[in-house]
């Protein structure tokens, strides 16, 4: 077993937050502290329902809101690959031409949700004169993490190559995602696009919401029961280990009611991006748990929406 101290690296701000977490003075009989999680503590740290009692209602809200948005603002669906699941929804203003494009990658612990649950932010972007794209891909257990990464990369490459078909500007493609989709978004931001047949500067910016930059602790948690990766793949798909490939700015956001470990993951990713002059901004959404953070993009007047639109220069 890897000593969990090996994957925890703190700045002063993170240390202060850790000292206030319930893990700092755990009530376990062995009195473990934050840097020495018990297995249960680590499992709980990566089980967001432990920290969000309203998770079911919020997730159901994604679906309900998305249905309402699609009734008022019907998208056009395109295929980016040969599998039935490999499609995406494009929400565009009438008469769209050369508009910036925001591509969204849904969350769901790599196991659930789809593009059909991801329409909520569309009015924010369309109303601002941009195009919003929600991509679909296969979830686990029918897929693997490398398979998801491949599908997301192909979807983004397709958007870049076909943007003009739906009124987009191929020179202004952005990506965003939440939770496991936040992780996948960070992977997209650390992708060598030229090696995947796309322009090196395919992406002009990104928004990582409540994601994970380091998979080392993730695969040691309960999530390791279905996120099966080799040691080399843990490094390959840990964005914080691949930041030398990042060539555009990114926003990082998380909720103040998330688990201490998710706060640490996002804080460290933000710090690492700042160290490479790639951090566009940090947003701690006050009073929001893990599942509520993404709903900030449903409100055009939210601080996160305004910063995202500013990142897109609109």
TrEMBL record:
Family annotation (Pfam families): BD-FAE
Gene3D superfamilies the UniProt entry points to: alpha/beta hydrolase
InterPro entries reported in the protein's UniProt record: AB_hydrolase_fold (IPR029058), BD-FAE-like_dom (IPR049492), Carboxylesterase_B_AS (IPR019826), GDXG_lipolytic_enzyme (IPR050300), TAT_signal (IPR006311)
A GO molecular-function annotation: carboxylesterase activity
Domain BD-FAE-like span(s) in chain numbering: 88-191
The keyword Transport is assigned to this record: no
Domain of life: Bacteria
N-terminal signal peptide: 1-26
EC number per UniProt: 3.1.1.1
Enzyme class: hydrolase
UniProt keyword terms in alphabetical order: Hydrolase, Signal
PANTHER family assigned to the protein according to its UniProt record, in alphabetical order: AB HYDROLASE SUPERFAMILY PROTEIN C4A8.06C (PTHR48081), KYNURENINE FORMAMIDASE (PTHR48081:SF33)
Protein's UniProt name: Carboxylesterase NlhH
Organism name: Pandoraea pneumonica
